Inverse folding.
């Protein structure tokens, strides 16, 4: 890349698509000041009005869908249909879902206080925007991941400073265009193009929160930097997702699931099936079927290209390591002649579990396969990973599938499906361990974008009654609180037996010395 330009390239041909000026780092204070001004006005609108605006955005998106899909295809290299299925449709679903739930979910919520002695007070939760948040996103789903975060951020009353990946800046600018055309206020969403140094400089501006999607390495660096100002973060990071195929699985179905789960987006998906854990009794037949189906995938139609050159180094490193350690290549294992694709690869054998290709995120059209004998062994193998994003279980026995699911240490489990739950806005998305912190989507995802304020007040004013725990401390007060604690002790009989003493202590205390 040139000093002051981001060069957007077609990853198939290497052709320069656009030269995009880098956003100057020194402009960031002004960017944040403008965002804060826009946010102050925007947050005064009711949630309902903001939700209506989101539906206008959906309208603009629907009208521009082909133009957008073309840009995603050109800059990212994925087939146009994958732009429809995995980027635009989930975004439309997300706008529809969140504009529908936000007005009721962000309404004040009353909390009934449980303790009878505190019933003269009531509690309410109120939700309010965070302020100006940062959205920093990757290149693999360059539209949906960033667009979804920005949409929910503005719906909840925030302003957004958005940095797309340097490998998807054109798609990033398209996102900006959509918000502008839908009539969102100037400066509410600001897209800045640049590399990691720009991302780091954005964090130095102390955004109210950072919504980051990307690699574990960058996630850790961001969290470390954010800790300087105690800036909260949600981190959606990598995965090495396992698919467990139980011995009763329909093999045609299971191999088709692995085919899409492992090779859609050319395997450049955080929730790709990268590890297959197949019962030993069906492993041979399963591998044959999957290998056969792989021969039917057509480059350019079903399979896109490797978006980022840097990925090829990881593929080569993982392939070399697998070869050196004696893994068995069932198919693939090499780059295409023009080096724009990796030939879809399935690798297994006795040594597989010691290889990088089985243990580390490859982020390419690669599945590493191992076998198991007992269900417990399959669960143990699936959980034996530093990642915990998503897992799949394929079985004819749905109860057993659910039993297995409940043992898996991941954010989501799909039974007889793969990968696509990231596109279900009503279900939470996110991982544990190295796969990240926090959840997006669903109600819990909505609350990631707001502050919660708890207000506690008396039902009405009783100025003559001062709280029991206020000064001065006295012997009667001590006895009363001791009697109160005793009420929690033992079974119902014991509680009942302790009640008269409690009431006697209460009366004695209330009749005693006045509160200060
Ligand atoms: P990356 O970490 O290299 O870059 C992501 C973004 O961070 C880019 O915009 C980049 O410019 C920026 N960045 C880099 N260094 C930075 C720094 N020091 N401070 C601030 N920002 C910085 O990741 P990538 O290669 O773009 O994306 C691939 C990774 O993303 C994979 O590991 C994949 O699993 C993960 N991912 C996760 C999810 C999920 O939902 N969990 C979704 C998609 C991708």
């Amino acid at each position: 890349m040139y000093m002051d330009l981001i060069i957007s390239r077609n990853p198939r041909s290497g052709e320069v698509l656009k030269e995009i000026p880098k956003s100057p780092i020194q402009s960031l204070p002004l960017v944040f000041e403008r965002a804060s001004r826009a946010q102050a006005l925007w947050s005064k609108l009711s949630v309902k009005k903001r939700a209506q605006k989101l539906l206008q955005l959906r309208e603009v998106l629907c009208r521009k869908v082909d133009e957008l899909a073309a840009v995603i295809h050109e800059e990212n290299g994925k087939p146009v249909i994958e732009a429809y299925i995995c980027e635009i449709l989930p975004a439309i679903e997300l706008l529809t879902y969140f504009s529908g739930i936000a007005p009721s979910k962000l309404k004040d919520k009353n909390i009934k206080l449980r303790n009878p002695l505190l019933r003269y007070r009531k509690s309410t939760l109120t939700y309010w925007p965070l302020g100006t948040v940062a959205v920093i996103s990757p290149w693999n789903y360059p539209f949906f991941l960033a667009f979804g975060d920005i949409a929910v951020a503005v719906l909840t009353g925030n302003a957004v400073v958005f940095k797309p990946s340097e490998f998807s800046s054109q798609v990033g600018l398209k996102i900006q265009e959509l918000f502008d055309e839908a009539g969102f206020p100037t400066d509410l969403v600001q897209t800045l193009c640049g590399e990691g140094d720009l991302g780091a400089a954005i964090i130095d501006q102390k955004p109210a929160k950072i919504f980051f999607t990307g690699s574990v390495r960058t996630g850790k660096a961001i969290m470390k930097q954010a800790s300087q100002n105690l800036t909260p973060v949600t981190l959606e990071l990598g995965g090495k997702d396992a698919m467990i195929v139980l011995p009763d699985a329909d093999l045609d179905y299971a191999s088709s699931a692995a085919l899409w789960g492992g090779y859609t987006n050319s395997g450049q998906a955080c929730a790709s099936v990268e590890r297959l854990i197949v019962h030993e009794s069906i492993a041979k037949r399963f591998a044959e079927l999957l290998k056969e189906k792989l021969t039917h995938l057509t480059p350019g139609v079903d399979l896109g290209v490797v978006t980022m050159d840097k990925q090829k180094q990881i593929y080569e490193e993982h392939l070399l390591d697998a070869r050196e350690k004696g893994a068995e290549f069932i198919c693939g294992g090499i780059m295409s002649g023009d080096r724009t694709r990796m030939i879809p690869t399935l690798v297994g054998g006795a040594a597989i579990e010691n290889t990088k290709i089985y243990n580390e995120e490859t982020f390419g059209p690669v599945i590493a396969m191992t076998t198991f004998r007992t269900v417990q062994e399959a669960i143990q193998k699936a959980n034996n990973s530093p990642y915990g994003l998503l897992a799949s279980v394929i079985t004819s026995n749905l109860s057993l599938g659910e039993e297995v699911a409940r043992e898996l240490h991941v954010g989501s489990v799909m039974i007889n499906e793969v990968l696509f739950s990231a596109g279900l806005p009503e279900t939470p998305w996110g991982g544990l361990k190295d796969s990240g912190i926090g959840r997006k989507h669903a109600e819990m995802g909505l609350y990631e974008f707001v502050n919660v304020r708890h207000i506690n007040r008396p039902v009405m004013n009783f100025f003559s009654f001062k709280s029991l725990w206020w000064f001065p401390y006295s012997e009667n007060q001590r006895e009363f609180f001791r009697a109160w604690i005793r009420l929690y002790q033992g079974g119902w009989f014991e509680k009942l037996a302790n009640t008269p003493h409690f009431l006697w202590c209460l009366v004695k205390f209330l009749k005693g010395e006045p509160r200060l």
User: Anything to note?
Assistant: The first strand starts at residue 5 and ends at 9.
